[in-house]
Design a protein that fits this description.
- The structure is a homotetramer.
- The first copy, chain A, has 17 helices and 22 strands.
- By secondary structure, chain A is of the alpha+beta class.
- In chain A, the strands form five sheets. In chain A, strands 3-2-4-1-10-9-11 form a seven-stranded antiparallel β-sheet.
- Chain A starts with a strand and ends in a 6-residue tail after the last strand.
């Protein structure tokens, strides 16, 4: 999520910012810019480079205006059709508005039902449309007041950007599940999920928006409000473990440094005699480095990644199976053959990819494999914006660690402890949502909100370029 | 506009029907099918063949269900972006629904403003979204009751198809501006704007829906209602002159026969000594035949049409001008050189194309050109679904017939009279909207409805395959 | 086939010319332009509008130079892959050259084999590559001499354009099977298969190239040579019947006029009492007009053509059959119901399409159908560039006229006589190739040239945009 | 370059192999398969994933047969048009053949001229077409004999695969500039430029083809010949430095290990007091690891690579400059701020990218930057298949090391020595081509072969999907 107020070529800056945030969502991308109160919108399914290929890059010039908000879609709820790609923009009584958000609204279905009962129609399955309806029905004085009034009714995780062509409004939910930064580029105000997106346009890091804070950029400059009912902050610790880019700073800490400390903790907690430490690229690189330095065992790159694959590799045929992993990673035999290896990964979800990777290492002659996981076992679902599978599909909810070790075929398997993980962040345990690790949810869950079942639904058949 | 209730492969039948109705709109096409109350939607900009090219034809199989409604978009209001392509489908309190309509709602902007004042949001500029809001807010018992309640509030021209996955509802406005047929294919009920679309799927012609009638196809069979406040019917006479396909029957008469009588009337009204009668292809062919037979002058094909052009010809360069007409039509010199010609056209709007065509004839050696127009001078705008330009751009609102004759460079120019035109239809004068010819509008006009000016608007930048 | 010497934007003029010649070939299109002796080439499969869609129209600007040759591909020999699209261009000892041709070389396979035995390699299955090899091996002084030397070895039907970036060479084979015109646009020399392509760029018609003549446009102006061994001219009479556009003049006569005389002859030869005369659109329109005028029976348009179909209609499903014809044509019921009809078509090849069309007429209520064919029965294959099927698939080689009448389900069926057809051209019988009607071939046939069978072949899998 | 003999789905295996070899060429990709002596070819411009996108993956099934050869194009000579994409396939006197090669033929232009003087025509500017002509003109008994006869006339660097649908022939030039492996998958014989491509299909590594060796896979099994005039082997040392993937073994050594030794040598040769060692990702990762381990300085990842960029990033606008590097790499500030850094890169060519990278490090707060280069200064052009710019553009041919250090703005700059580089390979100095480092070319250079200048040329305007 990326926003600009007050810069010429705001859409182009947003396009660059979305490139830097691509890791946060690969299913769709969109930009809404504004000029003289008129909004222009361009969205598409797929990566930023799918939505803005060479032959469409000139569309950026059509996105006129000195303010813009942009979004990359990560699907946790709703289909991947074009209708669900954000930002969503509409006309309403006071003109036009556009909204984009990260996260999940746990009472979204309930609010949708209430709105429908009042005659509202829905064209997407995105929660953003719920927010937009609430804003449109608000009688607040300024646009930001209406946004605040809408947010007050929403329970869950959201970082949000909205614009009506006069203001750009940025908000974090009172628990602050997802990150959101304020930056500055000359006279322009920038909003970005992570600092890496400020870096790409050479913007200055100003500060993080606080949980429950609403920040408005307008001709009045930058204003801050705290109109929402406060709650105990509980940022998502999994942002440090997996989601965020290592070169970003979020929730006050460098992701890179937290990951190195996760590795160092693992080394202290589960030492082992070995010839080398290696990572499953790329999200565990920093953890493995931290482990290697702490354990004083050489860090090596035993896997080589094919940089030309991306999301474009298509498995050609039913008869040739399991190329999915091999096409992306290959083992460097000379590095691993005959070696005792500490293999570090960020997390284990289903366990299927880990199994393939370990098999590749064995085939290449690894003598011992000691598997170290930077976070604790994932035992429960996330309702706040991370697409973990249903509980039953989480390997750690179904097997003991010893059973998992056996299933994966490794010599030893050690997970990080919850305390070790929290300690690596340098912040108190109460300061995080740890629900996927300990089933303690900071809010009611979706099924806690009464809602009648839907009987019918309209769906779009995808009409994208193939 | 085409609809099916009760046939397997309803979407495929609709696809074929839309092909036959392509002349009614070339800016977008879409189909919504329904199965078990779930709607599936596929829409795109351009021709039916652009929306369903070879590589996407399999999408028809994704449009499951035994009922479907389809639409080809002809733009008179709202931009050509994907958002405006019909049918529009939404979720609302009672499930899902989809709506498509032809024509224009003259109080559409007024209704939109009222809805917005009640908190409604709009994602398109299409009047269909207004209808959908009104249906969603209705408390009628059945879906068709809700549609009726919505239509009662709408003033203007509409033929409409709607479905909620249980019923397919078809309606004509009380004045019956646009045609709408009921057909039958085995046990299935078919709805189509013109009979040519029934022919393409070998469906039986049952009857035309009457002005103000609502017809519902459901598990109850076919039901008819007349819940709307009646008005004097005023079908659009321009459907006979230009819009409809000659092989269709509408408003009770064969278009083909009406056009031949238009030609015969012209021959009687404006006889001239000539060697041949020829048409500006293709909409005036039947008029020219009627003229030729009545005047006993040979009908000839002096223009040859290039069938490979369609809408795909792109003028390559600024330096090579005016190929637009020549690439589509060429004169057969041997036919026209040295001849006295009666040239027949359906109508004159701006006059610019006529001027080019007449110049081509002169260059090819035509000795005399007597220009005969199948309808009277067009002097005013249409607010009921025909995209005539603003009054000032209509040549007949700016010049006398003699001035136009001089501007076009023809030896004589005769327009049909209003009475002659009406007489050719075989129906009484009171039975038609003649507003573009005589400025007598059957309804208030859009600016007669009070409406505050819009300050802001959201627009989609087109993201179509290019 | 279209060529330009001496005009700026030669490629753009060629693009326009190819549009006008699209009816001569729909499987591929290409242009080679030349500037300072460097050739630039752009080719693609499909229609001109497929090869130069909106997003590629700027490629015309890359085709620099004031000379160009262009081609539309009609497949009679060789696959439709990109490799076979003409013009073909190569580098050889004296620089670069490009060649395009219409027609068929009956000793092409034999020449290819001889060249391969001398070490030549072939990248296409097009005869143009044979010509190019022969030119490259010639020791003639000028480029046009080398072309002449190559052509002297070739037997068959060809109209040809070639350029080496200094000269544009145009040639017709000694029998003159296919047409080729010289035009003039300001100071530029134009070559075109038909006059309709001269018309589209407003070029003056100069004269037709004669059988066996080679015309060279260069800085010397226009030069004419007759270096080839003369033969009795035998232009293809089927050009008048079907191939050429009615607005063209070829072989000295207006196609339009010849077709009207074909119709008039039929009327005299096979009169019948009827209510109307109608054509199977569009190639028989002029024949039907000629018949109607001569028989004094009204000409009517009983079929309405859907102009939006073109080649893009894709039949969606196995279960919905035979839409191929119905999607293109519909019957106007009011015109044909209860009527005695003279139905005119240009020719009958397999008879399958005729059968469908007649069935449509019967369903629409036609009382009598008298089928009149503008040419005699087609009983044998063409080896000169027309893609007639193998002898066994020609209905007239398998059935008597009475059997065909019965098969088609018409009340009467009359073909033109050979003498009637020739008489309509206004030229002597000896002046035409009539082989498909009387099996008298003006040259040896392909199998008369000894040639060893090929065992292996390389093929391109199509890589075109889909 | 990848080849298969004797496996069903040979084309699909080749497709996978090309994916693993994508780093060796990104400008085009193609596959020719063979069945019953018939060749099928599919080629395109761009990456393997551009040539075989989702909608074309079914083309693999059209590439029938149990043998195939494939190629990824790296442009050093000839334009990137479709004509130049390999493998090239042709028909000739004995049937069909296809050829692909890596490297450069230094007497290619001379041979082309000789062939043209004998009447040959050329449709590409690729040296492969020269080879094909020579093979077609050979009178050798078997296909492999003809290939050998052709290769005997060729001077330069080539690893080559060829097939006539009966044999797959693999060859390395007598000096063995480029790598080429033999693998085995069940009963099938595999050929691949590097072992990483054998790994991807789980093929066994058999052995490297020797310099000057020709290996033939056919129904006779695998045969080896050494018909070419021997020369002193001189494999390209730059394959170790930059070209090959680290997980491959080539020229008898693991690339990974050689790179680590290059790093260790640098550490010994140019020690410095520092806080961390980091690489310019990704080709110098192993060198940096080797340096860090030898110097006992922590290895860190100071640059984070954006994995979603690939080749698809398009700079949107003239006004926003220099995003090329920043979009791919970002600095992790917490890692580098205030630190003394050893920055390792594989090589410096022009120096422009290095300058940008160093500027990014400085902006992020790096205190000292000590730049270490894994190879010696590049001072001369390559004529053997690496696309180094012309001598004048090589920074090391224009500036002293001190001048370069100053230009780049680093605290110290040390290049590897030639002896250090060779020593890291574990092989004798005479065993390599070091021409780009010491200007000693193992063969005559292109301009040493007399050749008349070309005056004219034919070029294809690209017709690729955009």
């Amino acid at each position: 999520m990326f926003g600009v107020y007050g810069a010429p070529e705001a859409a182009t800056l947003t396009y660059l910012g979305l490139y830097a945030l691509q890791h946060r969502g690969q299913e769709g991308a969109g930009i809404v810019s504004a000029e003289d109160g008129n909004l222009s919108r361009f969205v598409g399914v797929g990566l930023v480079s799918d939505v803005f290929p060479k032959k469409k890059i000139h569309r950026l010039a059509d996105l006129k205006g000195n303010m813009a908000i942009g979004h990359v879609r990560y699907s946790t709820y709703g289909s991947s059709s074009l209708r669900n790609v954000q930002p969503l923009s509409v006309d309403y009584a006071r003109g036009a508005m556009a909204i984009a958000h990260n996260g999940n609204i746990v009472n979204g279905a309930r609010l949708r039902q209430e709105l429908e009962e009042q005659g509202a129609i829905f064209q997407s399955t995105s929660d953003s449309e719920v927010v937009i309806h609430l804003v449109a029905r608000s009688s607040g004085e300024r646009f930001c007041d209406c946004v605040a009034e809408a947010l007050e009714r929403m329970v869950g995780a959201y970082s949000l950007l909205a614009t009506n062509g006069e203001e750009v409004v940025a908000a974090r939910d009172p628990r602050g599940f997802r990150p959101l930064w304020i930056g500055r580029l000359g006279d322009a105000h920038i909003f970005a999920s992570e600092t890496c997106a400020l870096d790409i346009i050479d913007a200055e890091w100003v500060r993080e928006i606080e949980p429950g804070e609403i920040v408005v950029a307008s001709s009045n400059g930058l204003e801050s409000f705290k109109p929402l009912t406060p709650a105990r902050p509980s940022p998502c610790i999994f942002e440090y473990v997996y989601v965020a880019r290592p070169d970003s700073v979020i929730f006050g800490e460098s992701v890179d440094e937290v990951r190195k400390r996760l590795g160092a903790n693992l080394a202290k907690q589960a030492p082992v005699e070995a010839d080398l430490v290696m990572a499953v690229p790329d999200s565990s690189n920093q953890v493995a480095l931290g482990y290697a330095h702490a354990a004083n065992i050489p860090f090596e790159m035993g896997f080589i990644r094919n940089h030309y694959v991306g999301r474009t590799f298509i498995e050609p045929d039913q008869s040739i199976r399991d190329f999915g992993v091999k096409i992306k990673l290959n083992v460097s035999r000379s590095t691993v053959a005959g070696k005792r290896i500490v293999l570090v990964d960020d997390s284990i979800v289903r366990g299927t990819t880990s199994k393939k990777i370990i098999k590749m290492l064995r085939r290449a002659g690894a003598r011992e494999i000691h598997f170290r996981i930077s976070c604790p076992p994932i035992i429960d679902s996330c309702y706040y914006g991370i697409d973990t599978p249903r509980r039953e599909r989480l390997i750690a909810s179904q097997m003991s660690t010893e059973e998992i070790r056996d299933y994966l075929g490794v010599d030893s398997l050690v997970y990080q402890t919850i305390d070790g993980m929290v300690e690596a962040t340098g912040r108190p345990k109460e300061g995080f949502c740890l629900a996927c690790f300990n089933s303690e949810y900071p809010t009611p869950r979706p099924h806690d909100f009464e809602c009648s079942p839907r009987r019918r639904r309209n769906n779009d058949i995808s009409n994208e370029p193939e």
